Amino acid sequence: MPLVDSLERKFGSIAIPGIVRILVGFQLLTYLLIELVNNQIAMQLMLDPHQILQGEIWRLVSWVILPPSMNPLFLLIVLFFTVFLGDMLESMWGSFRLTLYVIGGIVGFVAAAFLAYATLGYSGFAAFYLSAGTSGYLWVTVILFAVAVLNPSLQISLYGVIPVKLVWVAIFRGGVLLIEFVQLTRIHPILGVSLLLAISNFLIVFGPRAIRQIRQRGEVAARRRKFDSAKLPETESLHRCGVCGKTEHSDPDQEFRVAADGEEYCTEHLPGRSAD
After folding, report:
1. Which of 8, 110, 240, 253 has the fewest Cβ atoms within 10 angstroms?
2. Which pLDDT score, from 0 to 100, does residue 135 have?
3. 3-state secondary structure of 66
4. DSSP-derived secondary structure for 204-262
5. Burial group, residue 6, by CB count within 10 angstroms (0-12, 13-18, 19+)
6. Between 138-150 and 200-230, two packed helices, what is the crossing angle to 10 degrees?
7. Residue 117 has pLDDT above 80, yes or no
8. Mean pLDDT value across residues 31-58
9. Number of helices and strands in the chain (H, E)
10. What is the spatial distance between Cα 142 and Cα 254, in angstroms, rounded to a whole number?
11. In this structure, how many other beta carbons lie within 10 angstroms of the beta carbon of residue 39?
12. How confident is the model at residue 96 (pLDDT cuts 50, 70, 90)?
């Protein structure tokens, strides 16, 4: 990615090492504050375009530190899995690219929320946010997708017991996301567009790669079809004597030569060959 390399040379200082770990730490802290101090804290942190337009600009980013679940066991599983994915992606990309990817995911989701709100008002925004925001954990999902694409053979232990390749987890999550996309699109097409916008960082980074792979596979298939069509059928002869009509099929031991007149003959009837 030449563009990213150029950006890293100019703005590499904005990289946040361990950015996923930091966000997970804040999610855990937020969970404790909600449980032990004030359960209304979540309402003050939610992404709400209307309240943002009223001046509560912290909501543009505060929604990222909301815990993905209030069930403590499930929360710990999700957070540990998120840290694992974040560390894996950071080891493959480096801190700058991961930071850029996470920021891009946040910007895309905020833009999607504002699109749904501006087009359909609170009802449309709620439909989008409840589906893609609360139950989707999209910023974690796009990290999962990235790791699965970059390292499809990686194997994990599901629930610490069941060995499974990460790519199958990503495919399952992608299926759930597809169902959400269909449901949102049925409510209103703009909600489907909002969902695509919410995962635009993944689509921007890996979309061109997927298109190139599809194009390359198509070109390979086309060349293969062209090659196969150019091959002679097994029953068709490549050599045939212009005198007796023998072929390599009728006489496998026979040799054939092209004479000066341009015709092909078996060695028995080659012009200029003296009779025995």
Report:
1. 253
2. 45
3. coil
4. HHHHHHHHHHHHHHHHHHHHHHHHHHHSPPTTS-S-B-TTT--BTTT-TT--EEE-TTS
5. exposed
6. 30
7. yes
8. 90
9. 11, 4
10. 66
11. 11
12. very high
Question: Mean pLDDT across the stretch 212-222?
Answer: 75
Residue pointed to by tokens 């150019």:
230
Is the model's pLDDT at 104 over the cut of 70? yes
For residues 21 and 84, give the distance between their C-alpha atoms in angstroms, rounded to a whole number. Answer: 9
pTM above 0.85, yes or no: no
- Please say if the pLDDT value at position 57 is more than 90: yes
Decide: 19 and 99 in contact? Cβ < 8 Å.
yes
Measured from the Cβ of residue 45, the count of other Cβ atoms closer than 10 Å reads: 19
Amino acid 88: pLDDT:
93
What is residue 228's predicted lDDT score, i.e. its pLDDT?
Answer: 66
DSSP state for residue 8 in the 8-state scheme? H
CB 198 within 8 A of CB 112: yes
Q: Check residue 250 and give left, alpha or beta (phi > 0: left; psi -120 to 50: alpha).
A: alpha
User: Cβ-count burial of 88 within 10 angstroms (0-12 exposed, 13-18 middle, 19+ buried)?
Assistant: buried
CA 10 to CA 20: how far, in whole Å? 23
Dihedral sign for Cα atoms in the order 145, 140, 115, 11: negative
Token pair of 30 as six digits: 């937020």
